[in-house]
Write a structure and sequence with these properties.
With 293 residues, the chain is α/β, with parallel strands linked by helices. It has helices spanning 11-22, 38-42, 51-57, 68-76, 81-84, 99-110, 124-130, 141-152, 166-194, 199-206, 214-225, 234-251, 256-270, 281-288; strands at 4-7, 27-30, 46-47, 60-63, 90-93, 115-118, 121-122, 133-139, 155-162. Strands 1, 2, 3, 4, 5, 6, 7, 8 and 9 form a nine-stranded mixed beta sheet that branches. Helix 1 links the parallel strand 1 and strand 2 (27-30). The longest helix has 29 residues, at 166-194.
Amino acid sequence: MERIGFVGLGTMGAAMAANLRTAGFEVTVWNRTPGRAGALIAAGATEAPTPAAVGRAADVVVSCVSDTPDVEAVLFGPDGVAAGLSSGALVIDCSTISPSATAAFAARLRERGIGFVDAPVSGGSEGARLATLTVFVGGEDADVERARPVLEAVGKTITHFGPAGAGQAVKAVNQVVISGVYLAVAEGMVLAMKAGLDAEAVAAALGGGVAGSWILANRSGKMIRNDYPLGFRTSLHLKDLGIALDMARGLGVSLPVSALAAQLEAGLVARGYGDEDMSNLARAIRSLSALEG
């Protein structure tokens, strides 16, 4: 069984690293902000002082950080992962970042004899905790097959779409689709409440028809209560929509719903709500509809 390094212990990464330990992998971890590795160390993981030290201790390194510059920094910066990896190693990036930058990172690592797989995930904190994530994969066939046992320890549905960057392109499509569904559910719940209806009963009834969705089932309650404990940060989804909108501009594709969602999310972030779950799109619709409480 290969030795695994894991860089980035946020809401998603910490749960994914824990599932790798549960699956029996030897895991070495690093996080930019100290103090996040306690539970993993208790579960048998080892903490390294730098990303390079993670690379030296691992055959395969998984990264799960916030944005494109963060991935570049942890891979290629001073004491970055690449400085510690040997030729023949593999990097699996589960962050959500630019598809074109991903292809460039893969090429840089290939020059060092290191494989690269982009494997952004969907399923939120629940999926990360339960190891039921959906994984969108890009990379060379041999690298993807080598990565598969690692990905199977954290995800349930794993699909290879093409060369490096393809997984990130599919994740951009995913973020476009969910932005529309979140926004539609928010509008529907606010409409139900303003009409004096029992919004929870409405959500339950809609779930039995064509309006049913994971988001309706799992996030409408937050919207009705106007309470948005963290599942997936609004600020991170706004970043993801920026990637998707940039991709769409380059391809000449119009994304009006995603552009509206991004505008509403930017307003929420500016008002200090960026760390709430992105179901707080309902907070914006409530405000626009003069629905308080």
